[in-house]
Amino acid sequence: MTTVEDASRPSRLADPDEGISIEELGLAARNHALPLEALRYDVTPVGLHYLLIHYDIPDLDAGRHLLTVDGRVERPLTLDLAALRERPRVTRRVTLECAGNGRALLTPRPVSQPWLSEAVGTAEWTGTPLAPLLREAGLAADAVDVVFTGADHGVERGVEQDYQRGLPVSEALREEVLLAYEMNGAPLLPQHGAPLRLVVPGWYGMAHVKWLTRITVLDREFDGYQNAVAYRLRTSADDPGVPVTRIEPRALVQPPGFPDFMSRTRVVRPGPCTVEGRAWSGYAPLTAVEVTTDGGVSWAPATLDPATPTGHLGNDSGPGAGSVGRRSPESAPDGPVVDERWAWRRWRYEWSATPGRYTLGARATDASGRTQPIEQPWNRGGFANNLVQRVAVVVTAER
Amino acid sequence: MTTVEDASRPSRLADPDEGISIEELGLAARNHALPLEALRYDVTPVGLHYLLIHYDIPDLDAGRHLLTVDGRVERPLTLDLAALRERPRVTRRVTLECAGNGRALLTPRPVSQPWLSEAVGTAEWTGTPLAPLLREAGLAADAVDVVFTGADHGVERGVEQDYQRGLPVSEALREEVLLAYEMNGAPLLPQHGAPLRLVVPGWYGMAHVKWLTRITVLDREFDGYQNAVAYRLRTSADDPGVPVTRIEPRALVQPPGFPDFMSRTRVVRPGPCTVEGRAWSGYAPLTAVEVTTDGGVSWAPATLDPATPTGHLGNDSGPGAGSVGRRSPESAPDGPVVDERWAWRRWRYEWSATPGRYTLGARATDASGRTQPIEQPWNRGGFANNLVQRVAVVVTAER
Q1: For the Moybdenum cofactor oxidoreductase dimerisation domain, which residue ranges apply (chains A, B) (predicted)?
Q2: B250-395: what CATH class?
């Protein structure tokens, strides 16, 4: 008697000396990371932004796609894409990171999507703000969570499901939250949620539900799989844990010099070398980025590019915040204003490279006091892990 | 004393029970495959096409980019992008596959980019034919190989290099070979070789040099790293081997039903199930695709979509062939004709699914007599390996 459960196995931790399995590799081949040299781009070019797709990319027809708003609302709504496009239009530059970024570097390793350090990307998302739509539908006074349902369908640890995530009403009503139908100025690509996805600036990627079909308001906390089982910080399998929410601060080094094909070790010539990269936090504005060239023994301050004049990444803001920001470099002077408060910031460090072997890394700190650890912050799902990156560099004797 | 060689290690085979290493995973995170559900698209959407980048994606300025043609030619040439765009413009739909596709499934496993079965994609490449340009430069009578140099720079097994590949003059003069500056109707993306790349229909991906800066005609066989060392079929480390050239036939199944997140095992309901996918060969027109549901014990014929009326994948063709093909579905009736002879073809098989566990696969055969093996065709680099794919399926008892 074969059942849906036969396709799944329970979650597990890898054995101490167990290499990456073929199943983990299968996920790595599908769900790609940002090639680190792409940290050079303010906005990640199409196709280089990280991807995490739980099941299959659905085959949806934008012309027939409908979004339903129901549950604890006074006036349930159904909108097609044309109706959503007629609503107020906003573009935000937002950095997204997968909650499992860094998982494959943990010991013991939770067996799941085996990210190293680069499951991140920054895009300009265009869409219409969610909050006014919820207000039009009329939230009931007892509303607690808002559930977003995607069209991707699969099994996970034996549970058949459409991908669904609940968000507390207070977060769903933030003016920054978008129903996005464009990415980098073009219609959404299939793999990024076409024709419609949620964007929740500051939160890890699991909240940004792709292929969005339904928004349901509940009078209780959502107890679906992705909230109650999957995305939780647990110390053990029987710990109920706490929810994964916003993005911990992280800085990534754009690796200097040129790489070895297999090891990705970098070769740098001796002399002055600008080490640069990006940093972000979903909690609060960044206050510092520091750089190490000795794997975290010693640190030196990096220069952080100014925040945009009108706001900070991680700043909560009230109604009207959608109109602040600065114009996109690509836009005409009279083009739309792009809100960049939720995007990564560039940093630089002038390194005097002398021959030898080095391990480069960077550490971001934000105004909430959060920073990045040198020792791994372990949890059973491998979530919200912002261990400092390690970039192996050989500085040659020869110039 | 540190040197460039310190960034590299010699090539090796994995130990019999060695899982995928962190270094292999690092390559898998960068160089992604085609998610198999994307076999549904005739032309692979941007960002889903497989990628194999030896070093870093270079940061090139299309406005300043120059292509030099030199070596054994009567009139060396230097052209910018504007000059290339003024030349005759051709669009070809071409399936590209990485020569190392399937490598991570081999035993013993060559340690390199750890592809499973899906390092493939089909794009519409637009550019100008190479052959007329070579004729204008005036090939010397003693010309043997044409070397294509890319701007990507790195180290590989201790050898510092710009990526370079040589192609026999007879291949370089095929009318199908393009200098491409657009992909799927838009300027090339950075990761696909912007602003200019070579496209050699029928050959594995290593021949399609990206970030093309120079074309050099030699009076001898090119003995650079990527021809003489890397891309060769060898039985052992000291076997000089033979060059990797054209794409062996392969069929891939677009996995039916829906997946389990971790195992990617498919769940299918009992009843009629259309199993479909794509097949291709770089040698000769396809003659058959067969399907197995029992891991290769028994086979049944699939229905192969007709070849385009004007040609076949793998057909060599003379001057003027660039004008044949059929109009792209996206094109206006008076739009450009797209040559599809080098693109994959769709196939279908009507399966009556009854409850149980299955291993699906498909096998392509071409007019040259080449087909796909059930037992692995092993070589030390893991190249040109077209072992039949295995898709695990659970057909549930419940409808």
Answers
A1: 271-394
A2: mainly beta
